[in-house]
Design brief:
binds calcium ion; single chain; five-stranded antiparallel β-sheet; Immunoglobulin-like; binds 1-deoxynojirimycin; alpha/beta
C-alpha cells in the first residue's frame, strides 16, 4: 500500500490560534471542523495538530497533564472524534503531537512521584545532589537555567530539560515505554494517521556526567542526544506499534540531528522522516536570538546536503516555534513574490512538505511587543536570564523578541473584520499578525494572483506530476542565489529554477533557452535570467 505521506502534503494547525468557535478568544476543535473545507481546498492531505491534550498550558500544551483527555478549552473527546470523521469525509488524515520526553508537573504520575509513590517515582528521573545545595550535574535546560529542581520532601532533584513544569520521563523504565505504547494505540485505533514526535531524539539519557562547555541552554546534550538507547526505543515503538497499522506517519522532531543519525533513523525503521534545524539556524546571530542576514548560497548548501544524503526529508520553513519565513529567507519588499519562491522550493524539494497555518497566505509575524507581556515560557526564561546581564533595555528586549514564539502564533487571518474572522468574541488570546488587510483567506481566495492561489496551483501541479513527489533529486551546478535542480522519474524530468534574492540574476549559459513545456513561471520574463524571486518549472521530458 502506498503511504499517503509520499504524495500528500502536511498542513500544521496550531489549534489555539486557528479558529475560535465559541467566542472565548481561543481556537478550538469545533473551529477546526468548521474550516476543514478550506483546508481541503488548499490541496493538502494530512493535518498535524499541535497538542490538544489536557494541559495547564505552561508551554502551550507541550506539557501534558492527561494523554487520554482533550483539553476542555479545545473541546471534548467527542469533538475530536467528530473531527476525525469529518476530516476523513474530505480525504484528510489527522496527525497528533506526541510529547513524551516530559509530562506536565500536573500529570497525576508526577504528582504521585513527588510523594515518593511507586511505581510513579520511577517514571521520572530523580537523583541526589552532588552535595548539599548542588544539583546532580551541570546540565542546563533548553530554556536556560539549571535542568534540575530540588524537592525538599524527597531530598532529591528531578530532571527537566525544558521548564521545571515539564519533568523528564525516565525511558530506562520499561513501564514508561508500555504507557506510551498504550497511548499510541489508543489514538491510532481511533483512526489517527500518526504522530509528530516532540524532541524525540533526546528522550534516553545515556549518562548523567557533567556536560562540556558553558552553554546557558542545552548543556549536557552529548549525554542524551541520539543515544543508542534512543535508537533502540524508537525501533521498539515502530515495531511494536506503528508497523501494525498499514499506512501511518512517524515524524521526529530531532534537535541538532546530524546526517549519520538521520540516516539511521530511516534505515533502521525508527522514524519515517525527521525535522532538521540547520537551515532555520542560518539567520541566528548573537545570543542565538539576534537575526543575521541569510546567505542563499549557504542555505542551498545546507538544504542540498540533506536532499543528497537523506532518502526522505520532512521539509519546512515555518512552525509554531519559528518566526515566519518571508522576513527571514525572502523579502518584505517582495512579500508575495518571495512567499511564492519559498513555497516553490518547499513543494519541489524531495520529501514531505509541511505548511504551517497562514504560511499559505504569506502571513507575517505579529509586531514585536514588550516581552514582559509574552505568554511564551521560553521568552520569559530568557527575560529572567538576561536580567543579570547589565544590557541596555532595548538590547535585552531585542534578544527576548528573537526568542519569543508568541509572534508566529498570531491568530489565523480569515477575513477583514475586526477580529479577522478568528473569533466571534471581542478579543483574541494573542495579537494579530502585521498586515495591511490584504493577506487573509477571504481576500486571497478571490485574487487569482494571491499566495493562497499559488499554493493551490503548486499543490495541484505536485499531485499531477509524479516526478515532483517520487522523482530523484538531481542538483545542477549553480552559484549565488540560484537554486537549480531536476526531479527525475524514469525518463520524465522537471527542471526547477528559483532566484532566492531581491536582485535579478543572469542564468548560466547551460540553463538558457531550455526546451520543454513551462509548468510554472513566476515573475516577469527577462532575457536569459530570472527577476527578483523569479521561478520557472519546466517539463523537460
Ligand atoms: C518542541 C516544541 O515544538 C516546542 O514548542 C516545545 O516548547 C518544546 N519541544 C518542548 O516540548
Ligand atoms: Ca474557543
Amino acid at each position: 500500500m502506498e503511504q499517503l505521506w509520499k504524495s500528500g502534503a502536511v498542513y500544521q494547525i496550531y489549534p489555539r490560534s486557528f479558529c475560535d468557535s465559541n467566542g472565548d478568544g481561543v481556537g478550538d476543535i469545533p473551529g477546526i471542523i468548521s474550516k476543514l473545507d478550506y483546508i481541503a481546498s488548499i490541496g493538502v492531505k494530512i493535518v498535524w495538530l499541535s497538542p490538544i491534550y489536557k494541559s495547564p498550558k505552561f508551554d502551550m500544551g507541550y506539557d501534558v497533564a492527561d494523554y487520554y483527555e482533550i483539553d476542555p478549552e479545545y473541546g471534548t473527546m467527542e469533538d475530536f472524534e467528530r473531527l476525525l470523521a469529518e476530516a476523513k469525509k474530505r480525504g484528510l488524515r489527522i496527525v497528533m503531537d506526541l510529547v513524551v520526553n516530559h509530562t506536565s508537573s500536573e500529570h497525576p504520575w508526577f504528582r504521585a512521584a513527588l510523594k515518593g509513590e511507586m511505581p510513579y517515582h520511577d517514571y521520572y528521573i530523580f537523583k541526589k545532589g552532588k552535595k548539599e545545595g548542588v544539583p546532580p550535574n551541570n546540565w542546563t535546560s533548553m530554556f536556560t537555567g539549571t535542568a534540575w529542581e530540588y524537592v525538599p520532601e524527597l531530598g532529591e532533584y528531578y530532571l527537566h530539560l525544558y521548564d521545571k513544569a515539564q519533568p523528564d520521563l525516565n525511558w530506562r523504565n520499561p513501564k514508561v515505554l508500555e504507557e506510551v505504547e498504550n497511548i499510541l494505540r489508543f489514538y491510532l485505533d481511533k483512526g489517527v494517521y500518526g504522530f509528530r514526535c516532540d524532541v524525540i531524539n533526546q528522550i534516553y539519557k545515556e549518562s548523567f556526567e557533567d556536560g562540556a562547555g558553558r552553554n546557558p541552554s542545552g548543556r549536557g546534550q552529548e549525554h542524551y542526544l541520539m543515544t543508542e538507547g534512543n535508537h533502540r526505543i524508537l525501533r521498539t515503538l515502530y515495531e511494536d506499534v506503528f508497523s501494525k497499522y498499514e499506512d501511518h506517519i512517524v515524524v521526529g522532531e530531532t534537535f541538532n540531528v546530524d546526517i549519520e543519525n538521520g540516516i539511521r533513523f530511516l534505515r533502521d525503521k525508527e522514524l519515517d522522516m525527521f525535522f532538521t534545524f540547520e537551515h532555520v539556524a542560518l539567520d541566528k546571530g548573537l545570543f542565538g536570538a539576534l537575526p543575521k542576514k541569510v546567505n542563499p548560497a549557504k542555505l542551498r548548501e545546507v538544504l542540498y546536503k540533506y536532499q543528497k544524503s537523506i532518502p526522505w526529508n520532512a521539509n519546512y520553513w515555518e512552525n509554531h516555534d519559528q518566526h515566519r519565513c518571508i522576513a527571514r529567507f525572502g523579502s518584505l519588499k517582495y512579500r508575495d513574490a518571495s512567499a511564492k519562491a519559498l513555497g516553490t522550493l518547499l513543494l519541489t524539494l524531495k520529501g514531505t512538505p509541511f505548511i504551517y497555518q497562514g504560511q499559505e497566505l504569506g502571513m507575517l509575524d505579529a509586531p514585536m511587543k514588550d516581552p514582559e507581556t509574552s505568554t511564551d515560557c521560553a521568552a520569559q526564561a530568557v527575560l529572567r536570564l538576561t536580567k543579570g546581564f547589565h544590557l541596555p533595555k532595548w538590547l535585552r528586549y531585542k534578544i527576548c523578541n528573537g526568542i519569543d514564539r508568541d509572534s508566529c502564533r498570531a491568530p489565523m487571518s480569515w477575513d477583514n473584520s475586526i477580529n479577522q474572522g478568528f473569533t466571534p468574541g471581542d478579543k483574541a488570546w494573542l495579537l494579530f499578525a502585521e498586515d495591511d488587510g490584504t493577506h487573509n483567506v477571504a481576500c486571497e481566495d478571490k485574487n487569482p494572483e494571491s499566495v493562497l492561489n499559488f499554493y493551490r496551483k503548486m499543490l495541484d501541479l505536485r499531485a499531477k506530476h509524479e516526478e515532483l513527489t517520487h522523482g530523484n533529486f538531481d542538483p545542477l551546478p549553480s552559484k549565488g542565489p540560484l537554486f537549480a535542480f531536476r526531479r527525475v522519474l524514469g525518463k520524465a524530468s522537471i527542471l526547477v529554477l528559483i532566484n532566492l534574492s531581491a536582485k535579478a540574476i543572469k542564468l548560466p549559459v547551460y540553463l538558457r533557452n531550455i526546451e520543454g513545456k513551462t509548468l510554472l513561471s513566476l515573475g516577469e520574463d527577462i532575457p536569459a535570467g530570472l527577476p527578483p524571486f523569479g521561478v520557472r518549472a519546466i517539463d523537460v521530458g
